[in-house]
């Protein structure tokens, strides 16, 4: 797309080939491990589990999380405007009563409910 540029120090817009090889190996190991369970091939299941677990450090070594693409100016992307919401310490809507408020720290005044 116009405006896309790689961020991770490479020229590939959709990830480096080595990263896609790791993804392919992981998908094959995961599916083969599932089929091994169904067919009671426990040795194959454990091999596939080992490959799946070892894909985490392998991904770290090859830097798979560095395969990032920015589409245009991040400051102009949808949802980036407005003010930052106040941290209320809860994922619930601030207008919803979720129980007693935590006690104020020594020397602080307890805020009024609803503020």
Structure notes:
The protein is 37% helix and 5% strand. The chain has helices spanning 17-38, 42-62; strands spanning 4-6, 69-71. Helix 1 (17-38) packs antiparallel against helix 2. It is built from 2 helices and 2 strands. The protein is flat, with a radius of gyration of 24 Å. The two termini are 45 Å apart. The chain is mainly alpha-helical and 115 residues long. The protein has a two-stranded antiparallel sheet. The protein has a domain at 4-71. The mean pLDDT is 76.
Rounded to the nearest angstrom, the distance between the terminal CA atoms is: 45 Å
Shape: flat
Main-sheet strand order equals 1-2
What are the low-pLDDT stretches, counting only 5+ consecutive residues below 50? Answer: none
Residues in helices, as a percent range: 25-40%
Q: What structural class results from the helix and strand content?
A: mainly alpha
Helix-strand sequence: EHHE
Largest sheet: 2 strands, antiparallel
> How many H/I helical runs?
2
**Proportion in β-strands:** 5-15%
Q: Look at the structure and give the mean pLDDT.
A: 76
Total beta strands: 2
Rounded Rg: 24 Å
Summarize the model shown:
This protein is mainly alpha-helical.
Q: Topology, pairings included?
A:
Elements: E1 4-6, H1 17-38, H2 42-62, E2 69-71
Helix pairs in contact: 1-2
List keywords for this structure.
about 120 residues, mainly alpha, two-stranded antiparallel ribbon, flat
